[in-house]
Structure formats: C-alpha cells, structure tokens
Design goal:
Layout (H helix, E strand, L loop, with lengths): L1 H9 L12 H4 L21 H25 L2 H7 L1 H6 L3 H12 L1
Length: about 100
C-alpha cells in the first residue's frame, strides 16, 4: 500500500489516498500487486460465512506456503523477475516505486 501512496504523490493524485482499500485492486492508477497464488471459488450453495471461512483458510495456507520464498528476496527483485514484468513491462510502476522506497 505504500507503493500506491508514493505513486499517487509522484503523479499528483494524492486524492486517491482517501479511496477505500478496494480501490487499490480495482481502481485506475494503482500499483499492481505481486501474485502469490490464484484460485476460483465456485458457488456451491455455501452460506456467506462458510464461503468466507473457506477463502480465509485457503489464503492462510497459501501465505504460509509462500512465506519462505517471500522473505528470501527483496520485493523489487521478485517483481522484476515476474513474467508480466519480463514479457510486457506490466509491473514497471510497481517495480520503480518499490526501488524508490528503498532509496527513500
């Protein structure tokens, strides 16, 4: 989230700081996150609470499994080697702002 704040400061879009947290995923002019895992949850008639519990349980497991890799290298290094960065430069904003935070 600190990447978005820096990016918005650079682009003179400080008003984006007052947007809800969901804006960081769905809004324009945000820094792309670094995907750790992905899963589609099917509508199997679960209650909202049961579905939320299933999602949180899955997310916790993914974080636990990914933690050794996440702490083994700098965020900027992980972003730079991600296929979207390598193939299309799609993560350039995230990469540049992460490097700026290291300097600052």
């Amino acid at each position: 989230m600190s990447l978005d704040k820096l990016y918005w400061q650079i682009t003179n879009l400080d008003s984006n700081n007052s947007q809800p947290l969901s804006f960081r995923t769905w809004g324009a002019f945000t820094c792309s996150g670094l995907p750790v895992a992905e899963k589609t949850f099917l509508d199997e008639g679960l209650s909202a609470d049961a579905l939320a519990g299933e999602i949180v349980e899955w997310a916790d497991a993914q974080l636990e499994n990914s933690m050794p890799e996440l702490v083994a290298e700098k965020f900027s290094t992980a972003v730079a080697r991600h296929p979207n960065q390598v193939e299309r430069g799609a993560y350039a904003v995230t990469y540049v702002t992460s490097l700026s935070l290291l300097i600052g």
